[in-house]
Structures are given as structure tokens and as C-alpha cells.
Amino acid sequence: MQILIVDDDDFALSVLEDTLTRIGYSVTTARDGGEALNVLRETEIRLVVTDWDMPGMNGVDLCRTIRREDLSSYIYIIMLTGREGAKQRLEGLCAGADDFLNKPLDPEELIVCLKTAERILSLETRDLALFAMAKLAESRDTETGEHVERVQSYSRLIAKHLSPEVKSMYGVGEEYIRLLHQTSPLHDLGKVGIPDNILLKPGRLTNDEFSIMQTHTVVGAQTLDAALQRFPNAGFLQMARDIAITHHEKFDGSGYPNGLAGDQIPLCGRIVAVADVYDALTSRRIYKEAMTHEQAKAILQKERGGHFDPEVVDAFLRAEPHVLRVRQRFSDETAGAEPVLTIPKQIAPQGSDQIPCKILVAEDDPVLLAKLVELLGVTGESILVATSGNEAMNIWDEHTPRIVLSDWVMPDKDGVDVCRYIRARSSISQSHFIMLTSHSNKGRLLEAYDAGVDDFLSKPFDAEELLARVRAGIRKAKLHDDLIRKAKGSQALNAQLAAVNSRLERLSMTDELTGLFNRRHAMSRMDEQWALAERYGRPLSIASVDIDHFKHVNDTYGHDAGDAVLRRVAVILRDKTRTTDAVCRVGGEEFVIIYPQQSVQEVSFGAERCRSAVEQHTFGIGDAEIKLTISIGIAGRTPEMTQFTDLLRAADQALYSAKHAGRNKICTADPTAKEIIVNHPVIASCDQFSPDGPPMDSAALLKRCGGDPKFAAAVTDRFRSQAGGEVRKIAAALSAGDADTMSRTAHSLKSMAAYLSADVASNLAKRIEDLGRAGDLGQVEPVVSALNAEIERVMEWLNRDSSNAREQASLAKAGV
């Protein structure tokens, strides 16, 4: 996949470009927002990684502009930032960013983020391809009724009921089952290449005709091969291709087209084979009557180990009650009625290729309402008006407008209430909701996003911007309608099922109250990190967290207040941990934080940040304000531990010790350090940047470079050649009173030092950058002096490391 990276810092740009190229991406670079926009307008790039702080058009402005641009497809934007706090992230989200990564980058976190982006971007391609191909196959043979829907459902049920051993052997998880459900409808795609006189013949086929019919497996595979050449990384296309060519193979090797046997047949093909044959047996055709379920089941059992994989037949039998419900739901018994294409009423064609896209304007100011109606008249769409929230909801119920332009503050119901009302009732026909607002409070904007608002427009608004955003919403609505109109009506149901499946998948790993990972996911994540730690010899630590005296909150203020406290504590824990740390609620008022690749000593600092933040926070409960504390138990993986449950047990024991020691404590499982009380300093001046200890972390540098010593050496060489010059440039800018140049140079040096894991140097450079942006040049000189001394210390360390490396190489060469 091609990625555009945008950063004005040459060092950071070079490191990121090398990193992405090394893991297989094609990279295009830009050094500011304007250059990036030109690239996006001329090149089809769908993934952008951009820095936040850039001169001219910064990352936030770039996000906003991309979202306003009429580009051919959705662009996924990852924002790189050294900024901390929820408010800054909210600003980026409001501008249109999809995800965030902190500088300096963690390669593993970067890869996870990119894979998430690829998965999300693949959904558009996947849905379009499946809609088009499924419709093409269905258009040839209407005699098969609801065959596609039944095979799709049967296949999913069989996969869900496979034995745990089979699931483990073939990696059958939720993602596999979801892909199987999406791709199984394409099993007979190749029938588009079968002549009508054979495909639609009202009777049994001759041997020659059957030989031609058998080629539909190859035709389907060839069609999907062509799609795979265009999208080689689309896993769903590969599964669809495997199903198309193997669903008529038999377990004993007597099937077609290639006579595959046993495990030579992909599992997805073996599953669809059972689903397809069962449906064919139990469905009426012109040339035969339908069998009963019991008759068809007897045939499947008889062919267990012959035609069919025994494990798949056993899974079918375990799913039997569900299979019968699906069969009844998608019954073809329609009293001889002609098959019809059911399209939802609100999006059905109305005499032309283009469907009117009604626009609802909700505004209680009559002057502004008249202006909005006048402006929107140029769209040529039907305009509906409402002067209150209740009226807007009534109009939406009656007309289902596709675009809603609503003021935030209105009588009776405000714009957020209207949006929630619409989101609770819209299913297939989605409305694009634009909020008019003078609010600048980020918390209020987040509330609106949670309610389902798609876009914001600030008052007073620009007429051209208003029309651009409304037209973008209209394009989105009409594209959606066009896809639905070209597909079978049941595709609307599939869209709803996909949304439900997505929600269920999310709920399966998320605690609904707090939004954190739940206990099930915590156990899975710990098992995964344990395996990585064991394989690569990495440290792994966890913290068990418990809210002190939480029962008193529930007993005194009620369970609603307790829920509010849990949600707030969850936010604090998430804000005070890294994005690579997993914060989970494992039950009641208990939380677990998983710290990959961190020692107990390192974790103690993060734990103290969490403890201190909760202690200092005031929890508002109705008219009351209360203070709460948390107790924390920390444990690190030791050689004596054999599984992750040992680590969890040790953390729990440490938590009990913290409770017994008086609460609001941090204890470790290490008997030599029963309690850790950490005073984590807030960096305010250069005096707090202690020169004690190594000036850089060579192991962390190597990790950031993907474990490649040559890459790490290149990063080190660049620091050697540029760092001193950057410090001199900062000093010159300070003498000239040029705060802008000083800040930008300090920003670049901060990035260089951070990639080198020279934390003191990086923090000093950040201090200079912040002072420059604040215009407070009077405090910069001592920090520059401290930075210069720290850079020299880093250089000495690098030279010593190089000398040690050369000496070790010489000794090795000499055989010592």
C-alpha cells in the first residue's frame, strides 16, 4: 500500500520513511500541508501519516482541508504528535484525524495502527466488490430462490460450531467467521459464464452439459483472480476465490475440478460444500421435489468421510437447531409468486435514475432560517424546515430526509437530542447530520460526536463552505442509494447484520460501562504478551488497581453515582498510560493495566501518575463533591513463573498488601520492596533534568529501528552530524530574538534526540520549544546551556559505544 508521510522535520521524515519502506510500504513524502494536498490531488493515496506541528498549514488544518476536498475515496489520516492530553486529541478528531501516534514512534505500535487503517480502508473495496459480484451471479438464475442467503447463514453456523481443536488448527476466530459469512455468497459466481440453455434447463443435464456446468468453479476462480491482481492483499477475495473453486471438491478426492482430497481442500471450501448440498437437497427445483430436513441430514451423515469432511458434518449437527430456524426464515414457499426485488420504501426509485435527496433545516431564528433555505435552494433538492427540535423529529419521521442541517440551541429539544433521535431510528437510510454551532467547548463537541453528528459548521458560517459540506453529504447519500438500488433488497438486511456483528465484536472485548477492555480481552492480551515476552526475553509487568472504599460510594450516593465514578476513573487511567499499555476493567471497581516491555521499576512511575491523578481529582456527584483514592499492586514476570496467571496472581497479592497497608498505596510483589512511593517530578526548569545515569538508551534506539543495527547506526550518524549545529542555530535565533526559528529548530532537535532515546536532551529541547512558542525568551538561555552540555554528554557516550564496538570486533577477529 502507498502511504503519504508529511513532516517538516527532515530527520523525522527520513526515519519514518526508512521505517515504512523496511516493512514493505511504498512511501511518498511531503514537507508541508500544501505540498501534501497537491500530492493527494494528483495521486490515488488513501493513507496519510502527518505531523501535527508544521509551519504554514499544520496537521490539523491539513485534516480539515482533506475532509472538505472532493477526493475520489476516503483517506485515512494518522496524526503524529508529541502533544499530551485529551483536549489536544479531541481537537484532532474534530478536524478529521482517524488515529494518533506519539513521537518518538514505537515500531510495533506503528504497525498495529497501519494494519487497523488497512482493515478499515479495505471495507469500502470489499463491500463494493461483494455487492457487484453477488448481484451479477444472482441475475442469471432466479429459480434458486433464497439459496444464497441460506448458504451464507449455514456456512457461518457451521464455522461457529466447529470443535475447539479444529478452530485452533485452522485459526478460525471471529474474523475468519465474518469473512466466511461475507464471501460464501460468491460460491456460484462462475455461473455467469454458463450458457442459458444449460444453466436454466428445466430438467436434468446430460453428461456433456454437466461437464460444461462444472466449469463454473473455474470461471468463478478466474474472475476473482483478476480482482486479486488489482488488490493482492485483500484476504476476503482470496477466501472467496478458494470457495468458488473448491466447494464441489469431495473429501475422498472424487470431486471437481481438481480432485483434491482431505486437507488439500481449504476449510472454507469444505464448509460451503456441506451448506450448499444441504440447501440443494432441501430446496424444490423444477426437476425435483424438496427433501425433508431428516432425509437431507441422513445423506450428510452417510457421506461423512466420503463427500464431506467429518469435522464439518459434526459441526453441522451441533448447529442443527439454528439451521432449522434459518431454513424457516429464508423459506422459498411463496405460493407461486414471482420473485420480486424488495427495495426499502424510502430509497426506492421514483421515476428517474436520480433519487431526490431531501434536506431538513432546523433553525428557530426566522431570519437565519430564510437565509439557509435561500442558500440551499441552489442544490436543486427538496428543502424541509423546522423551527424546533420536536418539529424536526416529526418531519424526519414522515419524510426521512437524507441531509439534516440543525442549529444546536433550539426550543424544547436541542440539536444533539434531534441527532440522537435520528440515530436511534435510522437503519438502511442513513442521514448526514451537520450541526450549526457557536460552541467552542471541546467537551460539548465530543458530546455531539457521541450522539452521532457527522460534521460541524461554526456560526457565523461561510456560504461557500456551507454548500460544500451539504453537497458532500448529498454525494455520500446518493452514492449509498445507488449501491443499494443496484443490489438485491436483502442487502439492506446484510448491512444491518454487519453493523450488529461489528457491535457484537466490539462488545465482546469492551466493557460497556467504561469503554475499557473487558476481562475476556484482558486475559487474551496477557496471554499474547506473555508469549511475546517468553519468546524474545522481554520484560512484562502488570498493575492491579482497585478503588478504595468504593462500596461506600454505592451505599451513600447510589449505583448511578458509582457508575459515574467508574467511568471517570477509567478516563484518568487511560489518560495516564501509554497507547501501547492496555487498561482493562476486570470486574466491579477492579482494573488491570498491562505494561508490555516494561520493568517493575519503570511501571512504578506510571502507576504513581495514576494514583496521584485519582487522589487529586474531585468527583462531582449531584451537589456533592468527594475525594477518592486507589490502591495498586505491581508485579513483573520472573523466571519462576510458568504462565500469565502466575503474574496476575502476584499482582493481586501486591494489591492486597497495598490495601492492608492503609490504602492509597502502591506495592510490588517483590518481597525486598514491599511498597513503592514514587515522587514523579513535573519538569519545569533545567535544574530538574538530572545528568545522572546514561544519556541515552541504546536498546530503545535499536527497538525503534526495528532491531536493525545498520538502521540504528544511520540514525546515530545523523545525530552526530546535525545535533551540534542545531544547538548553535537555537543560540543564534535566541540572540536575534527570532522565537519562531528557535522553536522550529528546537522541535527538530527534540525529534532527533527522542529517536535516539536521549530523553534528557529531548526534554530540554522541548522546554526551549515551549518557551519560544510562549514568547518567553528570558528563560531560554540557561536551558540552552544545559542542552549544549547534554548534547556533548550524548556525543561522548556515542563515541564510547563506538570504541567499545570496535574493540569487541577486533577481539573477535583475533579469536579472543
Structure, explained:
- This protein has 816 residues and is an alpha/beta fold.
- The protein is 56% helix and 11% strand.
- The chain has 32 helices and 17 strands.
- A five-stranded parallel β-sheet has the order 2-1-3-4-5, with helices on both faces. Strands 7-6-8-9-10 form a five-stranded parallel β-sheet, with helices on both faces. A five-stranded mixed β-sheet has the order 12-13-11-16-17, with helices on both faces.
- Helix 1 (10-22) links the parallel strand 1 (2-6) and strand 2 (26-30).
- Helix 6 crosses helix 13 (267-281), helix 11 runs antiparallel to helix 12 (235-246) and helix 12 crosses helix 13.
- It is globular.
- Mean pLDDT is 79; it is low at 334-354, 671-691 and 804-816.
List keywords for this structure.
56% helix; single chain; disordered C terminus; 5-stranded parallel sheet; globular; 816 residues; alpha/beta
List the helices and strands and how they pair.
Elements: E1 2-6, H1 10-22, E2 26-30, H2 33-42, E3 47-51, H3 59-68, E4 76-81, H4 86-95, E5 99-102, H5 107-138, H6 147-160, H7 164-170, H8 174-183, H9 196-199, H10 207-214, H11 216-230, H12 235-246, H13 267-281, H14 293-302, H15 310-318, H16 320-329, E6 359-362, H17 366-376, E7 383-386, H18 389-399, E8 403-407, H19 415-425, E9 432-437, H20 442-451, E10 455-458, H21 463-486, H22 490-509, H23 519-536, E11 540-547, H24 550-557, H25 559-575, E12 582-587, E13 590-596, H26 600-616, E14 618-621, E15 624-627, E16 630-636, H27 644-660, E17 666-668, H28 698-704, H29 709-735, H30 739-755, H31 759-774, H32 780-813
Parallel strand pairs: 1-2, 1-3, 3-4, 4-5, 6-7, 6-8, 8-9, 9-10, 16-17
Antiparallel strand pairs: 11-13, 11-16, 12-13, 14-15
Helix pairs in contact: 2-3, 4-20, 6-8, 6-13, 6-15, 6-16, 8-12, 11-12, 12-13, 18-19, 24-25, 29-30, 29-32, 30-31, 31-32
